[in-house]
């Protein structure tokens, strides 16, 4: 079957997708090399290949672990938006990809990619952001639907309400059984209109125990509870 693991990597995101046909996709890499330990818990010890790394946006808590992964795993390809960011970790990431001659896919528009029976629908960004300066990098996040048979999951990176409104206005299909909440459940994400349009049966929040940002926001939690949507959290359960 199709397995999705929201990894317990502290305050950040790292979501592992394993297709029934054996392909491995990692969406974001967390804030440090702790992602290696979590991958070791989820993957067979002989598995040393990741078919696709997806960096939703170049913030450290989604990016830093990728540099350790590139040292330890064979990587088939990398997907980014190409948005401008000057961080040392991001520049090292891009340099390593180039040195290792890993195929680089820069999102220019909405498209679909398949791994056997698993389909990834890249639904944001819908136009090129390559080389652009974005005031709030959260709102440059790649958003995708992972679809397997009748199951659908929406992965939103750190998308905040501005990006949520853009998705709603575009008319693209965002319905999903499971939502990985944007921006670790912050109050700037998971707006009521967006949640209602997704109509999820479950929301999963990736955040670190006792983090200094106060994620997830009590306001967001109350909104989800009011809508009657069950919530699971990595800060309470570990990997999900």
Descriptive report:
There is one protein chain. By secondary structure, the protein is α/β, with parallel strands linked by helices. The chain contains seven helices and 15 strands. It has a seven-stranded mixed β-sheet with strand order 9-10-11-12-13-14-15. Strands 1-2-3-5-7-8 form a six-stranded mixed β-sheet, with no helix packed on it. α2 runs parallel beside α3. The two termini are 16 Å apart. The mean pLDDT is 96.
What is the typical, i.e. mean, pLDDT?
96
Q: How would the global form be characterised?
A: globular
Radius of gyration: 16 Å
Strand order of the largest sheet: 9-10-11-12-13-14-15
- Helical fraction equals 25-40%
> Strand portion, in percent?
15-25%
Low-confidence runs (pLDDT<50, min 5 residues)? none
What gap, in angstroms, lies between the N and C termini?
16 Å
Main sheet specs: 7 strands, mixed
What is the ordering of alpha helices and beta strands?
A: EEEHEEHEEHEEEEEHEHEHEH
* Count of discrete alpha- or pi-helical segments spanning 4 or more residues: 7
Number of strands: 15
* Helix/sheet category: alpha/beta
Secondary-structure map with pairings?
Blueprint: E1 3-6, E2 15-18, E3 24-27, H1 34-42, E4 49-50, E5 52-54, H2 60-72, E6 74-75, E7 78-80, H3 88-99, E8 104-106, E9 111-115, E10 118-124, E11 143-148, E12 151-155, H4 161-170, E13 178-180, H5 192-198, E14 202-205, H6 218-226, E15 231-233, H7 234-237
Parallel strand pairs: 3-5, 4-6, 5-7, 7-8, 12-13, 13-14, 14-15
Antiparallel strand pairs: 1-2, 2-3, 9-10, 10-11, 11-12
Helix pairs in contact: 2-3
